[in-house]
Amino acid sequence: MRKFFQASLVLGLVFLVFTSCRFSRVVRDLSPEHKEFLSGVRYIINKKERKVFLDLPSPEREKFIEQFWKKRDPDPDTEINEFKEDYYERIEKANHLFREGGTPGWLQDRGRIYILLGPPGSRDKYPTGYRFYDRPSEVWYYGFFPIIFIDYSYTGNYELVPISAQYVARLLKAQIDLKPEVQIEGETLGFKLNLEKIANDQVKALIEIPYKNIWLLEKDGKLETTLLLSLDVFTDSKKKVWSFKEEYSISIDQDEITETLGKNYVIPVEINLSQGKYRMNVLLENKTDGKKVKKTTKFDL
Prior knowledge:
- By secondary structure, this protein is an alpha+beta fold.
- The chain folds into three domains: 2-70, no CATH class; 82-175, no CATH class; 182-300, Immunoglobulin-like.
- The chain is built from eight helices and twelve strands.
- The strands form three sheets. Strands 7, 8, 9, 11 and 12 form a five-stranded antiparallel sheet that branches.
- Helix 5 packs antiparallel against helix 6.
- The longest helix is centred in the N-terminal third of the chain and has 27 residues, at 2-28.
- It is flat.
């Protein structure tokens, strides 16, 4: 039995080494354009997509790349893919912000978090350490979550501390869990969009934003921000027939943070229309950091 186990283990290791070498060889043989694509999307491509891409013959990879971005397009009705534009803009910004350290900014821990979560609500720098004689550090805030980076080697290459890695995982999971059944979904400011028909010519839109996804600034012992909500309704012929725009101020006392963290901030909006088929665009902006999230849904009256 033991010999069988050892033989199985050896065969398994041989298979893993063979598979690893095979994929390494495939990556090495990619065209410069396809290598650049695969490297650039390392933070958002999943394992299955990566395997499919590498298994495809070279002529089919262009079609894969087109579909890769298309399914991530937040608004297919526009010519610009906002997700793709935003992603590459963040890479460029990360390279500009984190130039020290000897590694391109977007490949450092700070660059990776910046690309995945966007700019933090606030960024506190401690070049001589949080306390005297400490190592250089930075603390970024995403809502209630502090993300800590430390320059252990004094080279300018700040590393994400383990406890903060757990917070990042929670934030990324929240983004996935919050995907609604609509055509478009957002990132850190993710919200749920629900429609309730309350009459033949009236529908109520409910925008629910988890407080943990809202970036807030501390001011006079409170956490505050202002949300700007815009709604536009279009007919099947893309004619705008209704619009709405309003600001909503949020203020939370420090002693209410723990209780509030698990709740949602809910915005109800009533819409009056004649019977027909409609498409509604919802744009939510956090004026503290300028983050915008757009979603679209269709409904009938």
